[in-house]
Write a structure and sequence with these properties.
CATH architecture of the largest domain in chain A: Alpha-Beta Barrel
Number of helices of chain A: 11
Oligomer: homotetramer
Number of domains of chain A: 2
CATH superfamily of the largest domain in chain A: Aldolase class I
CATH topology of the largest domain in chain A: TIM Barrel
Largest interface: A-B, 55 and 55 residues
Distance between the termini of chain A: 51 Å
Order of helices and strands of chain A: EHEEEEEEHEHEHEHEHEHEHHEHHE
């Protein structure tokens, strides 16, 4: 770390900082500048004590960390992209996979019908929420355990792996019996107890970026999972919270590129939650492919009311099928091929 | 809700929207504008189905909610500020309380010494973390259950109630035995399972605003607790995440004023986490009082290294005592008096 | 507009609002809800007085605008994309153009050498700043008028049109003599006097989005130019200011898609300023194409120090040439072809 | 500056960086870390070339500036607060001044009536916009030069100095004849040409923070004015753009405290533009005083429609008078006294 002293610090103050640096297990190296003095502390920042406490000293202006804080999930540690195997599907091996399904599981009929259509259009994993973290306690919270029976039956019928969100440790036991990828949602992206519990289950984890997580915080959340023995992590960019209100969130396409550069984990993009409006999904899906993503997660559902479904512009099964077709030229341009289910 | 149709929508499209509104349980009232048509849906938005699904219709441009989504915690429901009783202390009754203590409990000696000094300076509640959610898995995660024994002994010794953060449901049983106010931290502000569990414990809850929660999301998180039978909630503004990096977070002083206007719960401010730098704590504390806060939560701790403690500008016990003294004129200007421990 | 009254407003208050709406030139239509009353004001919001003043009434909670505020640049007004002709180049006609060049013009030799290399690699317009708005008054502010002679000579030599930023009205006369596209930078995106002056010059304008402009504000800035008689506007997305610090700005790829949907103007993307780091430029450039952009603006410059230039990862002329080649499959996938200079 | 090299950089790469540092006019000091090497560059960052160009080197990960970039306006340069004299009023001398008046000058009668009421309530400066930068070209843009006659007459009548916004250099000549403080609005906070022109007029300048300016950018904008020979600058915090939509902007109360700590200029707060809603103005005004502000700028205007004015909660002259009275205890608590007009 680098400790920047205030302007015109005295020799005594410099010695004070050097002493403190030494006591915390680092070697101090002092550079006397024209206006400010700087003490560089040499030592492994991930194993030693943090030097940030030095900011409390009167004479210290800033403490600047130098090392990256994540290790296990970094490209420096593992140059090759991690291949995450989910039953008959492998993510991160250069093929491009699409996870599709409704926001919430509503009924056997709904889920089965969407699953078949999604599979026919090329999706290789299914999504469907049964435990839904909702901003208001008066909103629909998901079918809960009842939805698991539906997911189990649908999985057996269409033979695709299932991605579903977990919101509390106490549901882990019943979920791992059916669900193939445990999703950590944006609201629980810093719920470290849940991350540890999910890690220990050994199941692949789809880790969404928090509403306002930095890229570093997102990768450190992945590091929590990896450090607890589970390397099977899929990162999911789903937009961040900004001042712009034309979209529900702002898709941070640069984060996809940075995650691919700095981290060895596969990255998927969720354009549905990023945009919050269907008309942008094609453009954002193509941009995700172009930026280097390994896959997409897209909400597909039939409208609950017959009278409305015809005119809806949302990603009904037919519009999803059109989307999938339109993505192929971009998948090829990116040097990838569309993911398949292994036999 | 208000459903705004796209420009120049047809009579047929308007009828489609009206039908959908009726099927969702509302009465439609259509206004034919010069460019756009608008359908107002009359009905109780908190008990009926959400109309946002109508955004999926081709002819719909926007759906705008009109009602407030929180009920139990609103001033409309309860005009008087909720008085939250925590052992011998009452928050929300017009007296101004200060919660003080270290970020983390480190040892019996440390905690006891700070507690005595904080009490002597006028603090009426103690804080001390034993389960710490940390961004990096390599950072100190708190003493855990071991820290409870320290909190219990200190509480007995200085006779002040204890505020401490809970990060997972499985710690609830051991914590309620010692801790007087369960704190929900910013990272768990949308962990609704935890909010429900904490609500059901019956203990007073200090609910921090999430890193990037809107004021509405913060009040809806409180609504989760209230709806689960626990009205003893203290809101805590601790800064929000913005582009400005001169402070760790941006203290949203307007949120204090809005929470006091729209919600009946008492509000405290945490200037330590908002600023992330000690030199701003006096100014932010005074601003919090001026904006109408019912209290403050301030980090006080002695520096771990003797050689350093003298020169530190952080809120050591003496600087905390000076701060407390400097706040009195502002507490008086706000028409409040400093909170006391009831006999 | 929609005027939402506070909960349980009286009949008298409703009549007050209706009267006010009428006096401002609209027809009021009142809907009596279960909790709140709502008054819809029918009339053309872009030609009548604003109703926002009604928020001052005690009984009014919110006033919600319904109409879009931009007219001339909207797709509703003009379904076809505007073709902006810049000398021998046409932007917005389905071909994909790349504007390349150094951030600042430094010398004839530098500019000429980069211009030739950029043209050889496929760029069809040149950029080069001579008036540089810099955050610090101590930073290099550009060559000023002296740089114009360089731009003139280079333009004549390589026969490509020139894009350069204007920062004040008093430079307009000398700039229009040489520069083919006047660039409005992010810092002047709300300098409406400058927008009007530039509009009246008749020259094509490249309008960058402000540091923290909403999409609506960006399109309204374009409306200022269009309303002053100049339809030759190229929008430029260059990233917005967010809490994320891993990139200089956050490229808002959704804004590109929205601008293409709602506005008839061509859109280019500046990945250099968005990312602030060279390693992301290929990914962001490809994402821009995939999201529907009509072009890119990319900084290309040779390193000023010979000793350094070999190892630099920045977009030196050779790396720019490699980038251009790598974009071709994505341009084809998007159904576009690479832009040419007309004979 | 500090140059951080990538992990495991070679001795050759370190020498390359050292050479580059030397060529840019600094002395390199290299510290060999366990994972990363760091080169500290010693020299005055405000007079030498920027080292950020080194980020282009393959082997460089980051370049971190150490020195503050503003000099003339820093507390380090001038420990005492600058006293800005505006006719018979002095800002920055420990007295607390309130600038009041309408957003826009609408008529002689309106302005005169508000001015008298504002003066009677204790305001010592008047505000009133005649050149209004508006987001939409269809909104009212101010009376323009016609408004100057009104300002001149009102100033003569009530004998208070006038603050008014300037939006372009070409208006400078006519404005300086009447206006006592030239206001730079948030939208022009980075219009450096305008800052320079205003500086050279010698008139006191009220400099608003930009919509999304960092504190550093705001102080550097002030530095532009100071560097051009004009030290008479009043900073104005008016809220920043964040994700929170409950207020028009988020008042950054910490910025007031930081500006007071790091900069010698007086600071006023504009709660009207920060909140965008009248009900928050009392709380935000008191918070501003508590955080150390030297004054406030508050919008006061009578409602244009008689029928409406009685019930309005906005800062009509009577509500402004009540506000002023309610601020006195906080002004006293802050150790200040209410500002007066000198005889």
């Amino acid at each position: 770390m680098i400790i920047v002293l205030k302007a015109h610090s005295s020799a005594k103050e410099v010695r004070l900082v050097e002493k403190a640096v030494r006591e915390l297990g680092y070697q101090p190296h002092t550079i006397h500048g024209e206006v400010r003095n700087v003490v560089a502390a040499v030592g492994d920042e991930t194993s030693h004590k943090s030097l940030e406490i030095l900011e409390n000293l009167d004479c210290v202006e800033r403490v600047i960390p130098i090392q990256k804080r994540y290790k296990l999930v970094s490209r420096e540690a593992q140059p090759e992209t991690t291949e995450v195997r989910v039953g008959p599907v492998t993510i991160g091996n250069g093929s491009f996979h699409v996870i599709a399904g409704p926001c919430s599981v509503e009924s056997m009929e709904q889920m089965l019908s969407i699953a078949k259509a999604a599979k026919a259009a090329g999706a290789t994993l299914l999504r469907g929420g049964i435990f839904k973290p909702r901003t208001s306690p008066y909103d629909f919270q998901g079918l809960g355990a009842e939805g698991l029976a539906i997911l189990r039956a649908v999985k057996k019928s269409v033979n695709l792996p299932i991605v579903s969100e977990i919101t509390r440790q106490t549901d882990l036991e019943i979920m791992v019996d059916v669900v193939d990828v445990l999703q950590i949602g944006a609201r629980n992206a810093m719920n470290y107890s849940l991350l540890e519990a999910v890690a220990k289950s050994g199941k692949p984890v789809l880790l969404k970026r928090g509403l306002a997580s930095t890229i570093e915080e997102w990768l450190l959340a992945a590091e929590y999972i990896a450090k607890n023995g589970n390397p099977n992590i899929i990162l999911c960019e789903r937009g961040i919270r900004t001042y712009e209100q034309a979209t529900r969130n702002t898709l941070d396409i640069s984060a996809v590129a940075i995650a691919k550069l700095e981290c060895s984990l596969p990255v998927v993009v969720d354009p549905s939650h990023a945009a919050g409006r269907c008309d942008l999904i094609p453009a954002l899906s193509k941009a995700a492919i172009a930026a280097g993503a390994d896959g997409l997660m897209i909400e597909v559902h039939q409208h609950p009311e017959d009278a409305l479904s015809d005119s809806a512009q949302q990603l009904t099964p037919p519009s999803f099928a059109r989307l999938m077709k339109s993505l192929l030229p971009f998948i090829r341009a990116a040097g990838m091929k569309i993911g398949k289910v292994n036999k």
